[in-house]
Description:
By secondary structure, the protein is of the alpha+beta class. It folds into 4 domains: 17-105, Uridine Diphospho-n-acetylenolpyruvylglucosamine Reductase, domain 2, CATH 3.30.43; 112-230, Uridine Diphospho-n-acetylenolpyruvylglucosamine Reductase, domain 3; 234-349, Alpha-Beta Plaits (2-Layer Sandwich), CATH 3.30.70; 357-444, 2-Layer Sandwich (Alpha-Beta Plaits). Helix content is 37%, strand content 20%. The chain is built from 17 helices and 18 strands. A 5-stranded antiparallel beta sheet has the order 5-6-10-8-9. The chain has a 4-stranded mixed beta sheet with strand order 1-2-4-3. The chain has a 4-stranded antiparallel beta sheet with strand order 13-14-12-15, with helices on both faces. A hairpin with a 4-residue loop joins strand 8 (179-186) and strand 9 (191-193). The protein is globular and about 75 Å long.
Amino acid sequence: xxxxxxxxxxxxxxxxxxxxxxxxxxxxxxxxxxxxxxxxxxxxxxxxxxxxxxxxxxxxxxxxxxxxxxxxxxxxxxxxxxxxxxxxxxxxxxxxxxxxxxxxxxxxxxxxxxxxxxxxxxxxxxxxxxxxxxxxxxxxxxxxxxxxxxxxxxxxxxxxxxxxxxxxxxxxxxxxxxxxxxxxxxxxxxxxxxxxxxxxxxxxxxxxxxxxxxxxxxxxxxxxxxxxxxxxxxxxxxxxxxxxxxxxxxxxxxxxxxxxxxxxxxxxxxxxxxxxxxxxxxxxxxxxxxxxxxxxxxxxxxxxxxxxxxxxxxxxxxxxxxxxxxxxxxxxxxxxxxxxxxxxxxxxxxxxxxxxxxxxxxxxxxxxxxxxxxxxxxxxxxxxxxxxxxxxxxxxxxxxxxxxxxxxxxxxxxxxxxxxxxxxxxxxxxxxxxxxxxxxxxxxxxxxxxxxxxxxxxxxxxxxxxxxxxxxxxxxxxxxxxxxx
Length: 485
């Protein structure tokens, strides 16, 4: 093992040896490593934009071990950077370059403590991978109604800390709506626990909601009780070709009227995104024969009580949409394999775009009813101000959140473009989003990527409240420093 050189300690100690020795004694060889080869893969964020250093990587195996570590860090003034699957999009789980911090991996805390089928809830630890959770509850004829492209690496703790969304927010909401109870270690090492949920509890602030979406800056999520639903008996996925984003909005309203709560997903993507995906996935095929300016991916589900009429209702819904001129063509999945193939096209947009070259990505939201108008008004504006760029919007139209990406022209140095023109474009996009009454972060969090922009554009009153809460719960500023606030 090659130990990392000693790191400076925030309290003023000249060496970290005492802290590291004590942490190693408490956590054991599985719980703490200073081997740079083992730490290195976790020091760069998923997008490759941020790389930091750490004096060690801690991997506690229980809430008790984590609480001990946090108390030790508080005593020595050592910063802590929590990390789940390291699949975040805003650099929120990457340490800075000082090397002072302990990188905290929650991946060993991966137990599913209880699945309560009668109460329809699951209690699991922060390191449980989303796909593992899906499989565990599906074996009990239940489901956890949140999914996203990174389900094979994203962990429950990370999803809670960033208030993740995904493709089912339209019906079920983000993580904030699905967390029934929470366990977390606070900055002084105390354990906050509300894992047993109550339908009605009026004893002051809902403190778990304070921790959800706080990106590890107020406390470290260690476990949660999550809401479950009965398993879907059947689903129909529809791939529709539409002339414009405005038409997609009208089609969404039509589907909401006819399908009600059975409408579980409504995603959109432009022709350029589909073409990029088909190039990225040579074996994939477009579901429609013709070419369309926009495409909608619509998912309608049924439980056991309504499964018999699901396909008939979907056919009637789409037939009426044709009559109203809301779409140009559509294909309906005939099997689960075909439904998965439709979704693969949508979930492959991000990797296909990376293959095209450098881009600046924006995870933005505006009021739901304004999204088509926003994209149609601002995309030509950005492309005119930065000639050669291409503005691409795709994602969750039904909740006012799209991924608004600006793809670079053919440039020799993509990194230099991102650092110069890219940053200027992002400022412009964020200014426009703010003017339209929206948010610069819809579901990926602030992290370190958008921290300066939040400070520049955020409401001063809201920012002062955020900072006051941070100081109250973490007065030393040791929990995920440099992120969010």
